[in-house]
Amino acid sequence: METVQLIPVDPRLSAVDFRDIDLLYEKLTRALRASKNMVAKQQVLVFPEYIGLGLFLNQGGESVLEAGSIAAGLGALAKQHLGSVVWQFFKTYLDFFVGPAEQRLKRSVFQTFANEVWKIYCELFGNLAEAHRNWVVAGSILLPKIARGKSGWQLQGNRLYNQSVVFDPRGEIAGVTAKVHPTPDELGFINAGDLAAWQPVTTSWGKLAVFICADCWYPDMYSQALKFEATHYAVPAMVSPETAWSDPWNGYQPASTTPADIPAGLVGNLTEGEAWERFGLNGRLKDIRHQGGVVSQFKGSMLDLKAFGESQIIEPRKK
Questions:
Q1: How far apart (Å, rounded) are the C-alpha atoms in residues 77 and 66?
Q2: Of 30-34, 81-85, 222-226, where does the model show the most confidence?
Q3: Which CATH architecture group holds 4-314?
Q4: pLDDT (tens digit per residue) in 65-113
Q5: Mind listing the pLDDT tens digit for each residue in 193-203?
């Protein structure tokens, strides 16, 4: 099997970095050049979870990019395009998923700008992949279901998912993954991906399992990955607030989802960082044969959403 290098690309970002997409491209390019160490012909560049959020904030200009909070920013976006947002808001009644009004409003804003942001996201990360002749796991982004249609990859339906897109070295989409285990905060306005439909991305050098953040903490994801003979693992992630990495671990959320193999009594007695080491990708891969893994953690802030975590590169385990 061809040697593959998995590389986290985790520059410190803020909302204002998304003011100009060309300047953002340059900043991401500088970050990946600083991260790369040419020891393998095939390289996979993995960006953090929620990196696509800034592309939505970009749609509202300075009033949104400099807002005091995500809620205020999305509110400003809603006011700018009130008619479209209201239409999307009432369309949620046609879906089985109807959450609290403020959560449906949040989802309506993402739905309103989905098509425009989808184009920018594909151009940004597709161009990065093509320009550097690398595979790119483009963090994650909140969009309607991304599916292959007659005219190529497109957005489908009214439901919103936290999804990651993998681009090949030609800048073309190789596969899409939806987050199967959303956090309680996410479940207020997004839908969970279907575990039964989850598959690794097939490449010329193996099968790449993409787990979005919390997904890498759950044994069912690894069972599904092994079922499809995954060889490599990539995790776009975000840990917030920015102090959480060294704060006491709060356990699985909700607690009812805690896997049976987690020892009792650890909640509050480990830091979040220690829990990631034991129960995230690194810990879960210790008993699995694989060709390498990587966790790319978001660093920086999106208005009041502030995050920090330590990215990881996990060496192959061949026995």
A1: 12
A2: 222-226
A3: 4-Layer Sandwich (3.60)
A4: 989 999 999 999 988 888 888 888 877 666 655 567 778 888 889 999 9
A5: 999 999 999 99
The C-alpha atoms of residue 137 and residue 121 are separated, in whole angstroms, by: 12
φ, ψ dihedrals at 3, nearest 5°: -70, 135
Q: Give the predicted TM-score (pTM) of the model.
A: 0.94
Task: Please give the C-alpha separations between residue 203 and each of 89, 215, 304, in angstroms, as whole numbers.
Answer: 39, 21, 38
Q: How many whole angstroms separate alpha carbon 144 and alpha carbon 15? A: 22
> Dihedral angle at the C-alpha atoms of 10, 310, 56, 96, nearest 10 degrees?
140
Listed in sequence order, the residues at least 6 apart from 160 whose beta carbon sits closer than 8 Å to its beta carbon are 107, 110, 111, 142, 143, 144, 189, 190, 191
101-112 and 82-91 helices, crossing angle to 10°: 120
**Token code pair at residue 218:** 């759950």
The tokens describing 46, both together, are: 């993995």
